Amino acid sequence: MVKPFVPQLVYVEPRALDYPLGRELISKFETMGIEIRETTSHNQIRNLPGDNDFQKYRIAKSTLVVGVRKTLKFDTSKPSAEFAIPFATGCMGHCHYCYLQTTMGSKPYIRTYVNIDDIFEAADQYMKERAPEITRFEASCTSDIAGIDHLTHTLKKAIEYFGKSDLGQLRFVTKFAHIDHLLDAKHNGRTRFRFSMNDDYIIKNFEPGTSRQAERIEAARKVGEAGYPLGFIIAPIYLHDGWKEGYKDMFEKLESALPHSSTRDLTFELIQHRFTKPAKNVIEKNYPMTKLELDETKRKWKWGRYGIGKYVYTDREQEDIKDTLGRYIQTYFPNAKMEYFT
């Protein structure tokens, strides 16, 4: 069982101490006996311990930076929301395939932002501009926000903030099961609580440092019972020997665990495994023993949205994935909505 994240090292921006959450977190980490260092900016963490890149990368992934989010212009988000909302950056998990390895580059440490009222004010402005339409905010584009929320409770505050909203909805996804403190949040059905789910082979081989499949399923059961709208991102869908049986087993376990009430408004998002040339280089550097198949000759080349090409499965393989997983969803969760396959 993966224990809740506790940083080995904490950095703090002096400005973060101007905010109640900043002072509260530093006091908490001092009480826990964690080493605290000062930094001028959450984007400029230097002199991380470690004798080589391999060590420094792993230490960075267990380092938390308490900072202030200066840029409050929210990015447009994934297919699932209108805007990303930035409460944190980075993740303590070690998923071999993760796109954050390339997007975060030399800054794989975890950042949490304490000026949450400023972030809420910016969200409020976006909602007013789009009124009377509903605006959806994605809280996990650059982090697994739930993985640190047992320490910060930022996500819980956000759930309750959007719970009072008429025009906003919150969404996030997590690979962590440490969510009990979120079960009593006053969400009023305005936050979709999603879990990243996969077959057992993929979680065991490519997602070290995250909660196991059974733990995620049990957490999803609790979330369903707490009345949240529930969703699952099946990602990355990865072809391996026995993949059809592995995913069938996953859907069977989900179907038997979830309360019936939560299956009436259930969503699935399907994302096939893909990689870029820069990602492949970073993955092989950070996880030299990975079993992840990264052979370009077995893939189809596809241009990305921002002019960066990526390797995806062949058209025939993609059809097989859509047909197989689509059939499982229809069989086990006939009322669920499949939001997209990409």
Automatic annotation (TrEMBL):
InterPro entries: rSAM (IPR007197), rSAM_sf (IPR058240), SPL (IPR049539), SPL_Bacilli (IPR034560), SPL_firmicutes (IPR023897)
Record keywords: Lyase
Family matches, as SUPFAM superfamilies: Radical SAM enzymes (SSF102114)
Gene3D superfamilies xref list: 3.40.50.12110, 3.80.30.30
Keyword Lyase: yes
Superkingdom, taxonomy of origin: Bacteria
CDD domains, per database record: Radical_SAM (cd01335)
One Pfam family from the record: SPL
GO molecular function, one term: lyase activity
Name of this chain's protein: Spore photoproduct lyase
Provenance organism: Paenibacillus ihbetae
